[in-house]
Amino acid sequence: MRRQKPDIARQHQGALRKAGRAEEGAILSVSRDARIWQIARMPYPPDNPPHVFSVLAGREVSTWSEEWKHECEVRYLAGLPLAQRNDALDGSSGSMKFKRGEAAVAYLRAEIERYGMLKGKPSPERSSRRQVCGV
Fold it and tell me: pTM to 2 decimals?
């Protein structure tokens, strides 16, 4: 029977909390170098957060920003099949329309459409309209 290694970071974090040297919710990193354990408090949010290119913003944004959070949500919804996307946006009591309202869902739909155009992919809603309307 194999023994599992204990989670060292969690053990040290718990020991520091008991000793009163770490606040509740502090994020600690533990590294082992030549049998010496080093424990350091990590800043939350980081002092210099990473930046990535945002398609919707058209520039680099912080991964800790609301712009990036919004783009991740739009990217996720754009990647869903149309039926699942409609269910997530307009479905039952757990849908976004129920939680955020119709205006927010209309804005998300417009952002999903814009994201698809910027990425060069036509949305399934538009392509199905073209087939029906003969456009």
Answer: 0.59
